Amino acid sequence: MTQFSDLGLSQPVLQALDLKGYSTPTPIQQQAIPPVLEGRDLLGIAQTGTGKTAAFMLPSIDRLRESDNRIPFKSCRMLVLAPTRELATQIATSAKDYGALAGLKVQVIVGGTSVNKDRNKLHRGTDILIATPGRLLDLVDQKAFNLSGVEVLVLDEADQMLDLGFIHALRRINQLVPQERQTLFFSATMPKQIKELVSGYCNDPVQVSVTPAATTAERIEQFLFMVQADEKQALLELILSGRHKVPGEFERVLIFARTKHGADRVVKKLGQRGIEANAIHGNKSQPQRQRALDEFRRGKVGILVATDVAARGIDIPGVSHVLNYDLPNVPEQYVHRIGRTARAGKDGIAIAFCAEDERAYLKDIQRNTDAEFDRLDLPENFRAVVEGVGPTKPPPRGATRVSKKKVRPKPFGGRPGGGNPDGAPKRKPKQKHQARKGRPGGRPGGNPGGGRQGGNRRRGSRPRSAAG
Ligand code: AMP
Hints:
Elements: H1 11-20, H2 27-37, E1 42-45, H3 52-66, E2 76-81, H4 85-98, E3 106-109, H5 115-122, E4 126-131, H6 133-141, E5 152-155, H7 158-163, H8 167-176, E6 182-187, H9 192-201, E7 206-209, H10 214-218, E8 220-226, H11 232-240, E9 253-256, H12 260-272, E10 278-280, H13 286-298, E11 303-306, H14 308-311, E12 321-324, H15 331-338, E13 348-354, H16 359-369, E14 374-375, H17 382-388, E15 436-437
Parallel strand pairs: 1-6, 1-7, 2-4, 2-5, 3-4, 5-6, 8-13, 8-14, 9-11, 9-12, 10-11, 12-13
Antiparallel strand pairs: 14-15
The structure holds adenosine monophosphate (AMP).
Adenosine monophosphate is lined by residues 22, 25-26, 29, 48-54, 315.
């Protein structure tokens, strides 16, 4: 088996990897590190979770160490462009870890923070700068920074940068960096616009294409509720409070909503039921987003409701469940979303809520990703609960078939569902779970047999990734 030491990396980098506890390189690291060390341009078709950050960071750190160049005034030697503040911050953390013994200076600049502070910290230049394109150009326009010192340029999640409207910024940045440089270009998908961008940025790049480690996705079990749109909130509350048991033990639950407003609404309604959750989306300030992530990471608030853009690239270990409150209308997004669980060798559960008007999305996901769902039944008398006593009121005692005895401590929420007063996630003992195979054509909320969870549980199969 290939080891990091076989790839030509230096001792300080190998020692830093040792400290991180990484023993074997991932496929993208195996393929990308040798050509990057040689100074070749690279086109990596890969998404988060494949180990791509180390794939570009490790050899670049060595190249920066080897060259005698000094830190340029108001510029940087390596520039990494990332679409979101969260991803940029994460890359910076990795860069500091990997470069800990290499003595390189790492800085990060993202929107939503003080520009003045950024000006000051970049005044003397830096070895490695990780930046979102908007903030970077702000500083360039203010003459507080320039790109003339760039030796290595990385574009990470380029497709996402285009989705966020950074095309003009990227074209401009290409004009500002020196012709003589190395470019490492990463994208999960390769639409036409990305190909054009690649040809503008890269010079005869080595192409490396990987899907996320198969074992990761195979460890994600995928489940489906067919549920009416106006029942989703009630179902979510029943699940999170443990009143309607779903497979797996809650540790951290990442919930996806389609819109910022939708994410806020879910959080607010959960709060009204004593279930603490945070929202993360583009309308939140940078400190709010960081706090939500920190609280989620530390397990202080174990439920995070996110939109796609905010969640892209989030790498938090211990996400036990990804809950698709709204189905994404782009199948690849489904793969990205559920890839937030089953990280670092753990198992993961993905649960989708599909309403009548989302069936086309579900079909698209099944057609384009090979996802297979085990269908879960709604709680007994669920419609009556929703209609009779209001969507957020818990079902009357005994309304669900999950007996009180079986549902041990409530996983989330204080009042009135009981459980955990500080909102911290509690681990529950494993319970046997049953599900039946989902059929996209099934009845919405279909539970003719009266809500019992029945049938055979089957592992969901691995979805094909966007990268093919
Ligand atoms: P990335 O795709 O860069 O976002 O990395 C996904 C996760 O894998 C991060 O938590 C990395 O720290 C971790 N990782 C990267 N390379 C390795 C490796 N060779 N062995 C184990 N974990 C790794």
